[in-house]
Amino acid sequence: MISPLAQEIIDAHGGLERWRQFDTAAADLVQGGVLWPLKGQAGVLDRTRVTVSLHEEQASHAPFGSGSRRSRFTPAEVRLEDTDGQILERLEQPRASFQGHQLDTPWTELQLAYFAGCAMWTYLNMPFLLAAPDVVSEELAPWEDAGESWRRLRVTLPPAIVSHSPVQTLYVAADGLLRRHDYDVEIAGNTPGAHYIEDYIEVSGIRIPTRRRIFPRQPDGVALKEPLVVSIDLSNIELR
User: Fold this and answer.
1) Partners of 90 in the beta sheet?
2) I want to staple 117 with a disulfide (CB 3.0 to 4.6 A). Which of 11, 43, 59, 229 is the partner?
3) Closest Cα to residue 183, out of 198, 206, 166, 202?
4) What is the mean pLDDT of each run of 10 residues along the chain (240 residues)?
5) DSSP state letter for 64
6) Which domains does the chain have, with CATH numbers?
7) Which candidate, 148, 174, 191, places its Cα nearest to that of 33?
8) What is the pTM of this model?
9) For residue 135, which phi and psi values (nearest 5 degrees)?
10) Closest CA to 178 of 230, 125, 121, 118
11) Cα Rg for the chain, rounded, in angstroms?
């Protein structure tokens, strides 16, 4: 059963009934931040287009780096393909490949494809992911941030959904829209992140943020102002 706050959030973003009319979400991305060079993957996904499924955990980035490659992410496998769909590289059970990784451990291109696919699938499906089977949510005490008081929702994802971490926290403004999204990046040594969400637009009746900025999160929950770990700007968003 969806918690009352989860239902408020879903309704504020356009409602579950409308969301379920679509099969995919896609957007052009401009990305930056210190994470990509730290992982040895500077420039690969600076400018790309992502497409995610709204019914299964699948995502694709195209182009993926130089040339005409594209990525294909699922929890069970990640691969790089050419424009004809021919597999260039593949990695099965990709999450296991991050065993022992820390924040500064370099990634292969397939590991980058896994992280980027997993992350963008989560972002573009949230908050409607709150209504998925076996997702549990619980309201926490309010939080003061940026001069505002935000309600908070603790979210626990089932094993069937892979994401940054199984337990995450959403911060919600008075209008019901998300303002911040916290998680620990398990595949990078459980690095804690505070992900700020801004500049909403309406796309086919759904409210979608176009600006995302991710910073380190301290043990007390307060976000550091630097370094900027990841920046994501979205445009040309489509729901189909």
Assistant:
1) 79
2) 59
3) 166
4) 95 98 98 98 97 98 92 98 94 98 97 98 98 97 94 97 98 98 98 98 98 98 97 98
5) -
6) 4-235 (2.50.20)
7) 191
8) 0.97
9) -80, 130
10) 125
11) 17
